[in-house]
Amino acid sequence: MTDSLHERLGALARGGRPTGNGGLGAGAPSMPGSTPSMGVAALSVGRRRRPPPDLADILPGEELRTDRGVCWRHERPLDHWPGVDESLAERLNSALVDPPPDDLARDAGWGAWRERGLDSALFLDLETTGLAAMPVFLCGLLSCHRGEMTFRLLLARDYSEEAALLSAVAEELSRRPVVVTFNGKSYDLPYLAERAGRLKAPPSRPVGHLDLLHVARRRWATRLPDCRLKTLEWHVLGRRRGGDIDGAEIPDTYHRFVRDRDPRPLVRVMAHNLHDLYTLAELTVRAARTSVPAPTLPPGSPDI
């Protein structure tokens, strides 16, 4: 991913109109360069606030019907974003085929993925309205089919559509039963299970789970200030993320969307989710090519 993708996502995050093909949508309308003067009649009537754009104008997609109702689904090939590495699927496949480092060879999630092939996995990232079992409103998915990487986003347009979103995620995992996450063993999958149980929605039960947080810690924890995804993105993959939304702002952004029905602020959340998934896929390739460093013995320690 080059700077062109960062500039594009930054423009989306600032509410601008993306250019070319492959943006999340039309974005906020551009402001005119000058404001025409208003006549007396216009002043007497006053300005009317323009209604917000439709969700489909910002996030093109379709209404997805499940056994628990409907939610919104957006889908597009990942390579529609300028600057995305089009060899990502090929590099992921090579990493699965080649002999892995010892720790991945022992990882049940990696083994399940390797056995079933590249197309069997989903990179998964949730956006929620908070901690402690608050609703899930968005699930981002990245998968491969016949060499093409596809970004898929499932959105609950209001709180009543959460059960449908959970049902849609469970259906996705029934077709691609291996999941790749970042801290998903402690957060994403338990969160999905709790919300599915609370709402009596179908549970998400992957047959294999590769959690890249633990893989990353074994490789880079002693060399970096922390192992957050953005830290790894900078120090391991060599790029910084621009125009990103702070995670603490995401719940309020969604609540405002439900209240005001204006989808434009959600663009920043969608861009954040896409960035996380793409980084997770790239980090998987890098981790598969990086062995766990040998422990460093303190000075004066006897050789083992």
Describe the structure.
The protein is an alpha/beta fold. Helices cover 39% and strands 16% of the residues. The chain is globular and about 75 Å long. Helix 7 crosses helix 8. It has a seven-stranded mixed beta sheet with strand order 1-2-5-4-3-6-7. It starts with a helix and ends in a 16-residue tail after the last helix.
The helix content, as a percent range, equals 25-40%
Distance between the termini: 43 Å
CATH architecture: 2-Layer Sandwich
Described by strand count, sense and barrel closure, the largest sheet is: 7 strands, mixed
Bulk shape: globular
- What would the CATH topology be? Nucleotidyltransferase, domain 5
Round the Cα radius of gyration to an integer and report it: 22 Å
What is the element string, with H for helices and E for strands?
A: HHHEEHHHEEEHEHEHHHH
Oligomer: single chain
The figure for the number of domains is: 1
Number of E-type strands = 7
Helix count, per DSSP? 12
CATH superfamily: Ribonuclease H-like superfamily/Ribonuclease H
Structural class given helices, strands, pairing?
alpha/beta
Major sheet: arrangement of strands: 1-2-5-4-3-6-7
Name the poorly predicted regions. 9-23, 25-45
Approximately what portion of the residues adopt beta-strand conformation?
Answer: 15-25%
Just give the CATH class: Alpha Beta
